[in-house]
């Protein structure tokens, strides 16, 4: 003899809600190092014996060398290097690389458009969702006015007081361009409730 039991209405609702959230949003887990993203730089420094590190030293020029590699003018000195990793704003990169890259590439860098975005952070002394299975939620099916919701206790635990929670809600253009501050804050609250559920 077999015995089967149907879930209670509350359990069925919770399962239905959970499945709905999975279908409506991409959920994933991301983490940064314990001390934040800046710790990557420290790890690179710690793992580079003999490193000649220069801080607060703007680069004035980058040139190719006949023997290979590059010469970097910075801080009133010239430095010969094998390779260059460049990550400034596009216009700055275009100026520094104007004698190295094709002119049409430099023009594309100078014509890069900046995208506006807004970030709303909601903070809770007591974490309303301590067991939520993901750290980031992105709209999957229907587009929303917001672009991402991030649980910081999952992504960067040391940035949130013990037992608390902070949710970052990000807005991008469009439709952010047509929203005022009050609309952005309202949409952030709605997004958090929709993705993670209402506060207990």
From TrEMBL:
Domain of life: Eukaryota
Domain spans labelled Amine oxidase: 26-197
GO molecular function: oxidoreductase activity
Pfam families: Amino_oxidase
Signal peptide (residue range): none
Stated name of the protein: Amine oxidase domain-containing protein
């Amino acid at each position: 003899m077999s015995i089967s039991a149907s879930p209670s209405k509350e359990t069925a609702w919770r399962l239905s809600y959970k499945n709905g959230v999975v279908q409506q949003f991409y959920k994933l887990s991301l983490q940064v190092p314990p001390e934040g993203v800046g710790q990557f730089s420290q790890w690179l420094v710690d793992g580079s014996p003999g490193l000649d590190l220069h801080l607060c030293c703007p680069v004035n020029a980058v040139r190719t060398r006949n023997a290979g590699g590059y010469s970097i003018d910075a801080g009133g000195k010239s430095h010969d290097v094998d390779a260059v990793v460049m990550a400034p704003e596009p216009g700055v990169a275009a100026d520094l690389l104007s004698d190295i890259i094709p002119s049409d590439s430099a023009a594309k860098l100078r014509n890069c458009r900046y995208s506006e975005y807004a970030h709303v952070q909601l903070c809770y002394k007591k974490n309303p969702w301590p067991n939520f299975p993901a750290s980031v939620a992105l709209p999957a099916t229907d587009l929303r006015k917001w672009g991402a919701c991030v649980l910081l206790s999952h992504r960067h635990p040391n940035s949130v007081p013990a037992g608390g929670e902070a949710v970052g809600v990000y807005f991008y253009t469009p439709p952010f361009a047509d929203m005022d501050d009050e609309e952005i804050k309202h949409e952030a609250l709605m997004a958090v409730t929709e993705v993670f559920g209402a506060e207990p």
